[in-house]
From TrEMBL:
The lineage of its organism: Eukaryota, Metazoa, Ecdysozoa, Arthropoda, Hexapoda. Pfam families: DDE_Tnp_4. Its main location: nucleus. The keyword Metal-binding applies. This is DDE Tnp4 domain-containing protein. It comes from the Eukaryota. The keyword Hydrolase applies. Keywords: Hydrolase, Metal-binding, Nuclease, Nucleus. InterPro entries: HARBI1-like, HARBI1_dom. Residues 178-331 form the DDE Tnp4 domain. It is found in: Nucleus.
Length: 413
């Protein structure tokens, strides 16, 4: 009898447990019926894509460009380029985020560096959803705009860059200006001191070469902030190609850089000793004029894409695509709409009669891209010094600028 009672108790217990499990499952099903919060479900009628941006497109094209850093016509071109890659199918349970909205959110993220939470409220798209598709859209932008960051491959293409450098900056045989910058990031989890740099911040290094039109012709992304600065340039594909003479540059071509770089026959840097003679001071001034294109290119990049104005808090691979996408958009917009993306007062302007500089608008904004301090050895060969000496003599005697003496503190030649 006792055994029967015990069996009955166990049986009843199992029935009760089963009922509780069924009720729990029912509650979960009811909870999952509410896929989105009520205010987010009104995205189509109240979100920025269908209210603010549509209104700006029709009423204030300048404000529209300020929001996305491009015109509506350019947005539509870019959307057509990435649409197939970033499009998702609707499901029975939810509608896919429109590709236009995905692109708008990603461009706004690059333009401002706003948090995903802030973008959630503006566009009425959940933060968790934004964090999933932004990396995909960035990768798509990098892919479709890849042709816009292109190293010249023929001698004629290099000669065109040389012509522009000489025409605008009076520096002969110059094929580009190079520089390295620290892109500030939030410390990645479990990274230790890997990204910790000499500025006592965390960063990923962007090393780039710029042509006379302020466009990036070469970029190298991904070296962590702790890496030896000299190794960044030494291990770059640009340096390897320069050493192996595989860039198809015309004979006696040079690239210009600041004092962080090594002096070579094909890479000019300023004289760095403390007491300079007049010829050396003139050379440094003329070199600085040619190098100004890289300073302005990086300045414009940060001015237009404020994502760089604060430490970026994303995965390392996504940060690489943020940098590449911004540089690609910079080149694409510069070439497709130079007057709107790159108005005359955006960059430093030089008076052709006095050499006086009117600083560009980008200098009025925070530039959070610290310069990499040391990108090569100070040792150099006599042949490299001889090339620099010939340039110095040329600037001093053969091709002087009327105002260069005054700029270096000399009254007369």
């Amino acid at each position: 009898m006792a055994d029967i009672v015990r069996v009955g108790i166990v049986f009843v217990g199992l029935l009760i447990r089963k009922k509780l499990q069924e009720r729990l499952k029912q509650k979960k099903r009811k909870a999952r019926r509410m896929w989105v919060r009520n205010w987010i479900s009104k995205r189509d009628t109240h979100g920025a894509s269908n209210i603010l941006l549509r209104q700006l497109k029709d009423e204030d094209p300048v404000a529209y460009r300020n929001v996305l850093r491009m015109s509506n016509e350019q947005f539509n071109v870019l959307l057509q380029m990435v649409d197939e890659t970033i499009r998702k199918k609707d499901t029975k349970k939810r509608m896919a985020i429109p590709t236009a909205t995905k692109l708008e959110i990603t461009l706004r993220f690059l333009a401002t560096g706003d948090s995903f939470t802030s973008l959630e409220y503006l566009f009425r798209v959940p933060e968790c959803t934004i964090s999933l598709f932004v990396p995909e859209v960035l990768a798509a932008i990098c892919q479709v705009l890849k042709p816009y960051i292109k190293m010249p491959s023929t001698s004629n293409e290099w000669k065109q860059i040389q012509y522009n450098f000489f025409l605008r900056w009076n520096f002969p045989r110059c094929c580009g200006a190079i520089d390295g910058k620290h892109v500030l990031i939030k410390k990645p989890p479990k990274s230790g001191s890997m990204f910790f740099n000499y500025k006592k911040t965390y960063s990923i290094v962007l090393f780039a070469m710029v042509d006379a039109d302020y466009c990036f012709t070469y970029i190298d992304i991904g070296a962590n902030g702790r890496a030896s600065d000299s190794a960044i340039f030494r291990d770059s594909t640009l340096n390897i190609a320069m050493q192996n003479n595989t860039l198809n540059m015309p004979e006696n071509s040079v690239i210009v850089g600041d004092d962080a770089f090594p002096l070579r026959t094909n890479l000019m840097k300023p004289y760095s000793k403390s007491q300079l003679n007049n010829t050396e001071r003139i050379f440094n001034y003329r070199l600085s004029r040619a190098r100004r294109v890289s300073e302005n290119a990086f300045g414009i990049l940060v001015w237009r894409f404020r994502i760089f104005s604060r430490p970026i808090q994303l995965k390392e691979t996504t940060i690489d695509n943020v940098i590449l996408a911004a540089c690609s958009l910079h080149n694409w917009l510069k070439k497709s709409s130079p007057n709107t993306y790159f108005p005359e007062n955006a960059v430093d302007r030089e008076d052709l009669n006095t050499g006086n500089i009117t600083f560009g608008q980008w200098r009025n904004h925070v530039n959070n891209l610290p310069t990499v301090s040391h990108l090569g050895s100070n040792n150099y060969k006599n042949s490299a010094e001889e090339v620099r000496r010939k340039y110095a003599k040329y600037f001093m005697e053969d091709n002087p600028l009327p105002w260069q003496w005054k700029k270096v503190g000399l009254e007369l030649a």
